[in-house]
Amino acid sequence: MGFDRSAFAARIWNPRPAPEAAPPVAAAPKPAPPPRLQLIGIVHDTAENGSPLIRAALYDPDTDRLHIVASGERIGAVTITLVDAKGVEIESAGRTSRLALREPERAVSDLPPGLRGVGTGMSGGGK
Length: 127
Hints:
Blueprint: H1 6-9, E1 38-46, E2 52-60, E3 65-69, E4 74-75, E5 78-84, E6 87-92, E7 95-100
Antiparallel strand pairs: 1-2, 2-3, 4-5, 5-6, 6-7
């Protein structure tokens, strides 16, 4: 009886197969940046049929253009959903935001005499 080398070629220890690699998970798309539109003013206009029409003057710094728009109109991917006397509501990428008009600053002449010049760099008092 001779020495049989094939007996030693058999794999005694069979390691488990490597786990299958999980398919790569697609990253959630980054949300679009909010629109950079700036509300310049509200325009009170008259429609062709004579009814009042409120429009918004919106500045787009990305295109350096001023847009005069009414409710329901679009500027690129932004929809103007509402224009009223105090501001505008816009919708972009499923998000709604409001652009409001700023309250006008009071003129120095509207202030009581004792407050004129306070914090303005002007000499104070109405003396």
